Amino acid sequence: MKNVRNSRTAPSGDDSELTYSELNFAAASQNSTIHTSAEPETTYAQIAVRSQSAQPNAGSEVAPGKDQRQQETAGGTNSKKSRCLGLVALLIIISLFAIIIGLTVYVLQLTQDFSEAKKEQRTLRERGDWLNASLANSVRNLTEMSGRFQNISETLSQSRQKAISLCATLRNMSDSLCPSGWKLHNHSCYRFSIATENWDTAKRECESLNSHLLIINTDQEQNFAIKSMPDKNKQYFIGLTDRGSEGNWKWVDGTPVSKSHWLKNQPDNWNGDEHCGTVSKVDGEDVFGWNDVPCSMEFPFICEKLAPSSIGAAAFEKYCP
Question: How far apart, in whole angstroms, are the C-alpha atoms of residue 50 and residue 183?
Fold first, then answer.
């Protein structure tokens, strides 16, 4: 069989050209065995396909037409639009990522602020609970203290009533504890003698009664002595003398005179022999005071001693209402 060479250019929309390869049909070998059977033998020829270069020959190049140029222009425009759309989409995606990141940071910040605010609120609540508990405890303690104060006030009131009653009882006892013939004044007992004696005898008699000649320390005691004298026209010896030192008057217990009640122009130590004191009245006047007289003269006298209750006036003033 002879060789057949056929070349055909396939139409295409682009510049490439499809070329069929040449076909070679080789004759069967002459040495092939000839079958004698009645049925004829079919012999296939050898087909060889060779591709030609995709580049067309210069002679066969076809100039692009108007439609092909429009397609190329449209393709380029579409490519630019695609690139622009890609850039816009990329920018949008980047913006979305930035917004998402910003929102995430903002949400995290809000979450942190909320957590801190919640923590601070919890701290404030705990502090408020502690303050409320402290206030409740203080109110409870104040209530207890108020109750105790009320009880103390009631106890003090009862004690005051008992003290008043006790003081009244003691006063009554003091009044009754002075010996018969003695008068009570500020829890001291006083005896105003009727008989007259000289100063030394009067001193000894008072001492025999566990007392001493009157010692006047206050105006109240002076007034009491004057008021209680049985005969106000007489002078009464008191425990006052300057025998140890002329003009240096002292009481029988050795204490100096702190408050004097001398009559006018007294003491005058008349005739140089007046060394003992008396409570005396000015003739014709209702004026009483001290006078210096001779110790050898005889006058009634006043003795003084503490009441047997041994409770002084100061104690009554301090502890008794």
Answer: 172
Whether 115 and 50 map to the same domain: the answer is no
Token pair, residue 43, equals 């012999």
Q: What are phi and psi of 259, to 5 degrees?
A: -140, 115
Same domain membership, residue 212 and residue 170: no
| Any domain includes 61 | no
**Distances in Å between the alpha carbon of 103 and those of 23, 88, 109, 181?**
72, 22, 10, 115
- Terminal C-alpha separation, the chain: 167
pLDDT in tens, 70-111: 666 666 677 888 888 888 888 999 999 899 998 899 889 888
The domain tally of the chain equals 3
User: What Rg value do the Cα atoms of the chain yield, rounded?
Assistant: 76
Residue 230, both tokens: 């049985």
**Would the CA dihedral through 117, 120, 122, 125 be positive or negative?**
negative
Q: Which residues partner with 192 through β-bridges?
A: 302
Q: Tell me: the pLDDT tens digits for 201-244?
A: 999 999 999 999 999 999 999 999 999 999 999 999 999 999 98
**Do residues 81 and 49 share a domain?**
no
Q: Check: pTM over 0.70? Answer yes or no.
A: no
Tokens found for residue 79: 């490519």
Question: Which residue bears the tokens 């025999």?
Answer: 208
